[in-house]
């Protein structure tokens, strides 16, 4: 049983991409920290990044049968455009948390709407890459609670 961490388009450029907005940590840093955090609590964290909407949809479908209990996703720009990723989550019924490194609500108006937030368990935005850590802390606590 495991947690799936999904990062969407352009998040492979973390560390060099608009560092004033997204910070200096790389995707490898984020993924290594997530795996270590999971391991410390006895949970496997599988990491996936893609710049392609369909690949993200396929990975969410695969989560239905690979033991994934919870997904943490930063959908990147697909947050604001993707009915397909929304429908994938609705279709597999796996709970998920949505993470944004930046505070999308104080940025351009087109970033204010998410196709996912109303079906997410929770949303983190504006806490930098620490948002992933905070979301995982919540997810791990949820999984521990489910055991009892
Ligand atoms: C982002 C915010 C999105 O609006 C943007 O398209 C991204 C990253 C964030 O982590 O703050 O790619 O999801």
Automatic annotation (TrEMBL):
**Pathway stated in the Swiss-Prot or TrEMBL entry:** Metabolic intermediate biosynthesis; chorismate biosynthesis; chorismate from D-erythrose 4-phosphate and phosphoenolpyruvate: step 3/7
Q: Which UniProt keywords apply?
A: Amino-acid biosynthesis, Aromatic amino acid biosynthesis, Lyase
Q: Which first-to-last residue range defines the signal peptide?
A: none
Active site positions, chain numbering: 22 (proton acceptor), 100 (proton donor)
Enzyme Commission number(s) of this protein: 4.2.1.10
Coiled-coil residues are none
The molecule here is called 3-dehydroquinate dehydratase
Record lineage = Bacteria, Bacillati, Actinomycetota, Actinomycetes, Propionibacteriales
Gene (name only): aroQ
